[in-house]
From TrEMBL:
May be involved in recombinational repair of damaged DNA. Residues 1-506 form the RecF/RecN/SMC N-terminal domain. Keywords: ATP-binding, Coiled coil, DNA damage, DNA repair, Nucleotide-binding. GO terms for cellular component: bacterial nucleoid. This is DNA repair protein RecN. Residues 123-219, 265-299, 335-362 form a coiled coil. Belongs to the RecN family. SUPFAM superfamilies: P-loop containing nucleoside triphosphate hydrolases (SSF52540). Signal peptide: none annotated. The keyword Oxidoreductase does not apply. CDD domains: ABC_RecN (cd03241). The gene is recN. One of its GO terms (molecular function) is ATP binding. The lineage of its organism: Bacteria, Pseudomonadati, Bacteroidota, Chitinophagia, Chitinophagales. GO terms for biological process: DNA recombination; DNA repair; SOS response.
Length: 550
């Protein structure tokens, strides 16, 4: 429940503090005194967007603080999820600076606006005049019925199953699109793959063939040069190898006469051995080279195929060509395997859909069971609030599976017992919507763990006995919930457990709003003024006293 509201520097509020009771709190005051401004300040605490234009003092900052006492499992879960410190007293503070920046704090820990809105949803239900528009929306109507069903675990299980079903459905659609795209390319990719497979190039084969062909086409020139080199090294009249050997022996013979010669002789010996080895290697290479016209033709044909494929695929090497072949292999196999994957996903989707349908049928049964007593209770309350001829009927029709089930829920309304029911949005007036919303919320509040209900002028368009009955309903609500209600109706004000009066005063040349808790005698006077004007008659005072005492 909301224990205290502290407002500083907001609109025409300089500074005020209000302590609320845990039952029915009534707020009254002249039009324009600041009652709705008070609710606007509270809305900041509940996560409404800040407007720097509402600052009372443009040089200072606006601070609104709500102090709550909480014993709510949802609030405890919120604090645990966001790693906040939970205490018995919960303090929410909102600060708005002159430049428009706002900050929010929960127990002095900064939170963002999304977190604040989530938290406030577990603490307060703020019903303002424009909120009756929610009643016209099918989503709100469904949530009302579900709140009365009050089976959150069953709904949660359905929603988890729906998430899995939606995920599988998305996967199936993506895979179907991929298959359709892959099938368009499959024939061409298969043709390319078959072409590369038939070519059967090995690693570096094109590069090796190119080198081999150069050797084969220049075989005669190569052999002539190698023969000449081998001859000069080993078989000439004075072979180079033999000459090096002789020089080495001669220098070795002088080694005892000059200390540097042994090293040079050793180097000549190494050169001799190296030239001997070179000569042997050249002979081996020479023996392996033959002019082979058939092999040249084969190599030319093979290279022509390789060059054609390189050009076709826009690459330069055999390795790149083999990488393309591997990629095509994956694409073709993937396309051929998609049908099997699709079949498995379709089986899973059908299984999930069947399970969802069974769960949705169970939820429909629960909702249908709740409709008749809900209609009876609402229609009884409508008579109580001065609408004896009004009838509400709930229509549930089966549709396609959705995140909330299969039901399309619509509230139908007949204001005059005509037997002609139509959607609320088409036939209910503003005053009728306000009273209907009160009746519905009074029933829903019994099923929802919402400690504080706030009504801003829910009595629009009613008076007399209807207003008194609205007061009775609010009083009943206040037995289990904290209720804060702004009203112009004396019949409702008379039901208050705590009656607050909002007024304007001139302070240091500025008009400001103040709030005070009325004593019993002050309440009687205030209600009498609501009945007959600023100077109440004796009859009005007596009537007001009776309202307060009863």
């Amino acid at each position: 429940m909301l224990q205290r509201l502290i407002v500083k520097n907001y609109a025409i509020i300089d500074h005020l503090e209000v302590d609320f009771s845990g039952n029915l709190n009534i707020i009254t005051g002249e039009t324009g005194a600041g009652k709705s401004i008070l609710m606007g300040a509270l809305s900041l605490v509940l996560g409404e967007r800040a407007d720097p234009g509402v600052l009372f003092d443009k040089e200072g900052k606006c601070v609104v603080e709500g102090i709550f006492r909480v014993k709510n499992a949802q609030v405890a879960d919120f604090f645990q999820q966001h790693e906040l410190d939970l205490e018995d007293t919960l303090i929410i503070r909102r600060e708005v600076s002159a430049n428009g920046k706002s900050r929010a704090f929960v127990n002095d820990t900064p939170v963002n606006l999304t977190q604040l809105i989530e938290l406030s949803g577990y603490l307060v239900d703020l019903h303002q005049q424009f909120d009756t528009l929610e009643l016209e929306k099918s989503d709100f109507q469904r949530r009302v019925v579900d709140a009365l069903v009050n089976e959150p675990e069953q709904m949660q299980q359905y929603q988890l199953a729906w998430q899995r079903y939606s995920h599988v459905t998305r996967q199936l659609k993506q895979l179907q699109d991929q298959r359709d795209s892959a099938n368009k390319e499959l024939d061409y990719n298969k043709f390319l793959l078959d072409e590369l497979t038939d070519a059967a190039f090995g690693e570096n084969e094109i590069e090796d063939l190119d080198a081999e062909l150069k050797t084969l086409t220049h075989a005669e020139e190569i052999k002539n040069t190698l023969n000449r080199a081998c001859f000069q090294l080993k078989e000439d009249e004075q072979p180079i190898v033999q000459q090096i050997k002789q020089l080495q022996s001669a220098l070795q013979g002088l080694a005892g006469f000059q200390q540097e010669l042994p090293a040079i002789a050793e180097r000549l010996q190494s050169s001799y051995l190296e030239l001997q080895d070179i000569a042997d290697e050249l002979e081996r290479i020479n023996d392996g080279i033959q002019h082979d016209a058939n092999r040249i033709e084969q190599a030319n044909e093979r290279l022509a195929t390789g060059y054609k494929l390189l050009k076709k695929h826009g690459v330069q090497t055999t390795a790149e060509l083999l990488a393309i072949k591997a990629s095509l292999q994956v694409k073709v196999e993937s396309a051929l395997n998609m049908d099997e994957q699709l079949a498995q996903l379709e089986i899973e989707q059908n299984t999930l859909q069947q399970s969802l349908q069974e769960m949705a049928d169970d939820i429909t049964t629960l909702r249908t069971q709740e409709v008749v007593p809900f209609e009876e209770h609402v229609n009884a309350l409508l008579k109580q609030v001065g609408m004896p001829n009004a009838v509400l009927k709930v229509s549930i029709t089966a549709g396609t599976l959705q995140p909330w089930g299969q039901d399309q829920i619509e509230f139908l309304f007949d204001a005059n017992k005509s037997g002609q029911f139509a959607p609320i949005r088409k036939v209910a007036s503003g005053g009728e919507l306000s009273r209907l919303m009160l009746c519905i919320k009074s029933l829903v509040a019994q099923s929802v763990a919402l400690p504080t209900l706030i009504f801003d002028e829910i009595d629009t368009g009613i008076s007399g006995e209807a207003a008194r009955q609205v007061g009775v309903i609010l009083k009943d609500l206040a037995n289990a919930h904290q209720v804060i209600c702004i009203t112009h109706q004396p019949q409702i004000a008379g039901k208050a457990d705590a009656h607050y009066f909002v007024y304007k005063e001139n302070r240091e040349g500025k008009v400001t709003t103040g709030v005070r808790l009325l004593t019993q005698e002050e309440r009687i006077t205030a209600i009498a003024q609501m009945l007959s004007g600023e100077k109440p008659t004796a009859a009005a005072l007596e009537n007001a006293r009776e309202m307060v005492m009863n």
